Amino acid sequence: MSKNKRIVSGIQPTGNLHLGNYLGAIRNWVVMQNEMKEGDDCVFFLADLHAITMPQAPDALAENVRNMAATLLASGIDPKQAIFFAQSDVAAHSEMAWLLNCVARIGWLNRMTQFKEKSGKNREGASVGLYTYPVLQAADVMLYQATHVPVGEDQKQHLELARDIATKFNNDYDEKIFNLPEPIIQKTAARVMSLRNGSSKMSKSDPSDLSRINLTDSNDDIAQKIRKAKTDPDPIPENESGLTDRPEAKNLLGIYSALKGVAINNVLQQFAGQGFGQFKPELAELVVSSVGPIRDKLSTFKDDPAEIDRILLAGAEKAAVIAEETLKKAYQVMGLRRRA
């Protein structure tokens, strides 16, 4: 096994990406990619196999995969620096998931809280894939001998499951086939809330387009949405305690903090005493300068779907070489036959 650092992370392909998606995950991928040392690498994939655990229109899913790829490329993911591909282009993900399904225990999966949340009251009507997708997540990272996996609070439980499955597999077959990946807690991931309701996350499903900054919005649209964003009449405080029970104020200041790359207290000190009528133009200018270049590059990539497909397939070829080595070892120790 390689002793070098390998970060593995996937993202489900969804449409209408917004500022919350960018600050919550995409920007962190770019940072991790650019911080890699020689011999280390990043494996980033579009989790389209995970997407089908819920109903998907085939044409929409295919379009979302390309759109997500275009967004990541426009945001700074570089196929020359990172291995970047669509999950379904590497068959080893599905194969490894089945092997791990035969090692994972039902009791472990019963403890997964996200299945309960996503299935809701229709648990009996949920797909088996939705129930077992944490095992596919384990396969995703173990195939590439990941040393580190970026996780948010809602995914920590799934990485713990992956480690449990890897440990059991290694012990069952008395051979260390898999690394036990360590979590990277994404401290720089910003939780961006709705511009109309500071208590709800920014979401593409919100019926009001004014609630979010889309990565495809024009400069004028961005400025208008910031101008109309909900706030309160009180001035900006000097410290964070002054933001208690002021979710909309906290959200706008948090967006500025995240895009500027400075601590929230520094932002508060800079604008303390000002009203949001003075602050919003500053925020709008910062958001425009951050989103505008991504939007322009995104448009270029979307105009060339063949190039997106070429990039994804080239990445899949690189990924498959690594994945095949791990999969072959797993087949062998389990006593299974595998044709070359």
Automatic annotation (TrEMBL):
Motif segment ('HIGH' region): 13-21
Gene3D superfamilies xref list: HUPs, Tyrosyl-Transfer RNA Synthetase
Keyword Acetylation carried by entry: no
Molecular function GO labels: ATP binding; tryptophan-tRNA ligase activity
Location(s) in or outside the cell: Cytoplasm
Gene Ontology CC, one term: cytosol
Keywords annotated in UniProt: Aminoacyl-tRNA synthetase, ATP-binding, Cytoplasm, Ligase, Nucleotide-binding, Protein biosynthesis
Reactions it catalyzes: tRNA(Trp) + L-tryptophan + ATP = L-tryptophyl-tRNA(Trp) + AMP + diphosphate + H(+)
Binding annotation for L-tryptophan: 140
Superkingdom, natural source: Bacteria
Positions that bind ATP: 12-14, 20-21, 152-154, 192, 201-205
Cross-referenced InterPro entries: aa-tRNA-synth_I_CS (IPR001412), aa-tRNA-synth_Ic (IPR002305), Rossmann-like_a/b/a_fold (IPR014729), Trp-tRNA-ligase (IPR002306), Trp-tRNA-ligase_bac-type (IPR024109), Trp-tRNA_synthetase (IPR050203)
Intervals of motif 'KMSKS' region: 201-205
GO biological process: tryptophanyl-tRNA aminoacylation
Coiled-coil features, chain-numbered ranges: none
PROSITE patterns: AA_TRNA_LIGASE_I (PS00178)
Enzyme class: ligase
Function, as annotated: Catalyzes the attachment of tryptophan to tRNA(Trp).
Record PANTHER family: TRYPTOPHAN--TRNA LIGASE, MITOCHONDRIAL
Self-association state and partner proteins as the record states: Homodimer.
Protein name: Tryptophan--tRNA ligase
Organism: Zymomonas mobilis
Biological classification of the source: Bacteria, Pseudomonadati, Pseudomonadota, Alphaproteobacteria, Sphingomonadales
